[in-house]
Amino acid sequence: MAVIIRLRRDGTKNSPYYRVVVADKHSPRDGKFLELIGTYDPKKKGDNSTIKLERVDHWVKLGARPSDTVRSIIKKAKANAAKAEKEEAVTA
User: Fold this and answer.
1) C-alpha to C-alpha distance for 90 and 8, rounded to whole angstroms
2) Closest Cα partner for 20 from 55, 44, 45?
3) Mean pLDDT, residues 78-85 taken together
4) Using 50, 70 and 90 to split pLDDT, how confident is the model at 86?
5) Highest mean pLDDT range out of 1-5, 28-32, 71-75?
6) Res. 92: pLDDT tops 80
7) What contacts 8, CB < 8 A, 6 or more positions away?
8) Strand, helix or coil for residue 1
9) Is it the case that residue 90 has pLDDT exceeding 90?
10) Residues near 23 by Cβ (< 8 Å), separated by ≥ 6?
C-alpha cells in the first residue's frame, strides 16, 4: 500500500482550513485516512500550522512520502522547534 502525507480540506467556501493526514495514495482527498498528524490554516498570519514531528518521522521511516506543501510545513515546523530548543538552552 502506497502511503502519502497530504492535506485534507475542511472549512467553508472561501475559508479553507486543512488537516495534515497520512492516507493511502489512492483514497480521495477528503476520504479515509490512517492518522491525523497536524493542521494548517493558510488564512492565519504568523505561526499557522501545528504538526506532530515525531509522528511525521515515524511515517517517513515506514515509507510515507509527504506532498510538496506538507514538506514545506514540516521544514518550517522543524526550524521553529530547533529555534525554540536553542532559546531554551540559552535561558537554562
Assistant:
1) 38
2) 55
3) 90
4) confident
5) 71-75
6) no
7) 18, 19, 20, 21, 23, 29, 30, 33
8) coil
9) no
10) 3, 4, 6, 8, 31, 32, 33, 34
For the CA atoms of 81, 73, 23, 43, what is the dihedral angle to 10 degrees? 120
Residue tagged 505561526 (cell numbers):
47
In single-letter form, the type of residue at position 19 comes to R
Task: Report pTM.
Answer: 0.87
Instruction: Give the DSSP per-residue string, 46-92.
Output: SS-EEE-HHHHHHHHHTT-EE-HHHHHHHHHHHHHHHHHHHHHHHH-
User: Could you tell me the three cell numbers for 3?
Assistant: 502511503
Amino acid 84: pLDDT: 86
